[in-house]
Amino acid sequence: MKINRKTSLKIAALGFGVAGIAGIAISSAASLSLGTGALGAGNVVVASCQPGATPITVGFTNTYAAATPGYTVSAVRLGAVDAACVGQQVKVTLSGAAGASLVEATGTVAAAGVVTINVPGTIAASGVTGTAVSIYN
């Protein structure tokens, strides 16, 4: 059976997504630099449209919530997103203790540069220990 490039990329993305959700690497809920060549402090970014030499950066917008009490993650900011990714879908999974998924947020890359994905619900920033990002079509 012959496996084409697109199928190989989908298999790789699935594998990286599972690894990210399983919490193989730990991140802080501040700012991380993720790319295909180096994982840094984050879990993983899978984006076949992104040049390997230009890592996508990941940051968080935190908002104070008296009910929590503390800061909650209201958005995830992806930086240095290549123009080749415009029009593709984005899925961000934030994970907590033992790699448990806390929330999944989705969106579309509307323009190159910075992409902001709003996070639904109330997720305490202090509980985020991992981040997995996938950009796909």
Q: What is the secondary structure topology, with strand pairs?
A:
Elements: H1 5-21, E1 31-34, E2 44-47, E3 56-65, E4 70-81, E5 89-95, E6 101-108, E7 113-118, E8 130-136
What does this structure look like?
With about 140 residues, the chain is mainly β. Helices cover about 10% and strands about 40% of the residues. A four-stranded antiparallel β-sheet has the order 1-3-4-7, with no helix packed on it. A hairpin with a 4-residue loop joins strand 3 and strand 4. Mean pLDDT is about 80; it is low at about 10-40.
What's the quick description here?
Helices cover 12% and strands 42% of the residues.
Please supply descriptive tags for the structure shown above:
4-stranded mixed β-sheet; elongated; 137 residues; mainly beta; 4-stranded antiparallel β-sheet
Q: Tell me the radius of gyration.
A: 15 Å
Structural class: mainly beta
- Number of continuous helical runs: 1
Q: What helical percentage do the residues reach?
A: 10-25%
Unreliable stretches, pLDDT < 50, 5 or more residues?
Answer: 12-41
Distance between the termini: 24 Å
* Succession of helices and strands: HEEEEEEEE
Query: What is the general shape?
Result: elongated
- Give the biggest beta sheet: 4 strands, antiparallel
